[in-house]
Amino acid sequence: MGENDGQRFDRLPATPADREVEGRASREEVVDWWQERFGVDPETFDGVTFWEKGSGKIWAFSAELPSPVEAEGLGITVLRTRQEHWKPTTTGVRRFGRDATRNVIELGPGEAAAFAAGHDQQLERWDGDWGYLIAAHELAGELEPIGVGLYLHGELRSRVPKGYQEEMTTLD
User: Where does the record place the region Disordered (predicted)?
Assistant: First the structure.
């Protein structure tokens, strides 16, 4: 088995059978996870390569590169693995969440503004899965992802990072 190096990007293996680093997710598992959790069609990821840097930080890049790559950043972070529940990133949800058909909670203008500002809120109306959801609001007739929420016990907890909170202050 190879080992994980936090100083470089290693391309994810195509399938679990191709895995050389213990615990590393495969491309197949990442695409399947987005489909199972959010209903994102696997074709959405055609032309996208997935990379791990550090322990479980998965990046998406829309090009082919030889592996490994020594760089500070490569594309966008989309997912955190190597923990009990995989967690999508705000960047990943904003990029791929438009294609989601499941586990998307639609927020009204005031709710969207509060969520984007990082506030947790009681939202008893959600009757879907608990766990990580895509929080979205309507913008110009389309449902637009805001970010990742964690829904537990009737509460939607905002997981919008501080940098995004400032950028999204115009939602209300």
Answer: 1-25
Write out pLDDT tens, residues 25-66.
Answer: 999 999 999 999 999 999 999 999 999 988 889 999 987 776
Q: How far is the C-alpha of 107 from the C-alpha of 51, rounded, in Å?
A: 32
Instruction: Give the tokens for residue 160.
Output: 């919008």
Retrieve residue 19's tokens. 């895995």
Give the chain's largest Cα–Cα span. 51
Cα-Cα-Cα-Cα torsion 123, 128, 130, 136, nearest 10 degrees, comes to: -60
What number does CATH give the domain 103-167? 2.30.130.60
pLDDT tens-digit profile of 84-99? 899 999 999 999 999 9
Are the C-beta atoms of 95 and 88 separated by less than 8 Å? no
The answer to whether the CB of 146 falls within 8 A of the CB of 156 is no
